[in-house]
């Protein structure tokens, strides 16, 4: 866990900046700020980041790792499932309106420049950001399993970038993204500690534990 401290530092910096931005702007203000700098390149870039943490990616990575690192595959699957369930339950509990609905109610929807090839979500499923939760959970898990400096830095920036993409694509408010990032980190850490505990307690790899012959 100590080797992954850089991820937590970078997340902490991004979190601090996010909280400052949230406190200095009215609700939706950060979205309007990003909207002013919309461009074709940023549209494609942020759409790519958003798609990179959706369910098919989790399934693909877990399947590939199944043949190389059984524990990593199982841990990634657990993280993905918990991210999906926890963010879904919280969305159903809070029922916060998506930015599009909010801007419509505030009569400022017409000032927004919508993103080509990306239709913003509607409904009351804004808090927290599920994509951000999944991104931080997945990227921190990868960093914990493969704690090389370049991997940690790449994963941190990809997760932070995914959070920004949700704001840029007018799908979430900054508070949704901040909450999603914290939830994702919490899920990744808890799952990792559970897997570490199981291996240390039994003195065997996860693969051996799940394939132990009955006596």
Number of helices: 10
Reported by name, the CATH topology is Vanadium-containing Chloroperoxidase, domain 1
Distance between the termini: 35 Å
- Note the quaternary state here: single chain
What tags apply to this protein structure?
single chain; 215 residues; mainly alpha
Short description:
With 215 residues, the protein is mainly alpha-helical. It is 72% helix and 0% strand.
Write up this protein.
With 215 residues, the protein is an all-alpha fold. The chain has one domain: Vanadium-containing Chloroperoxidase, domain 1, CATH 1.20.144.10. It contains 10 helices and no strands. It has helices spanning 5-24, 29-36, 40-51, 55-66, 70-94, 99-105, 130-145, 149-168, 174-202, 206-210. The chain starts with a helix and ends in a 5-residue tail after the last helix. The model has no long low-confidence stretch (mean pLDDT 90).
Write the SSE topology:
Blueprint: H1 5-24, H2 29-36, H3 40-51, H4 55-66, H5 70-94, H6 99-105, H7 130-145, H8 149-168, H9 174-202, H10 206-210
Helix pairs in contact: 1-8, 1-9, 3-8, 4-5, 5-7, 5-9, 7-8, 7-9, 8-9
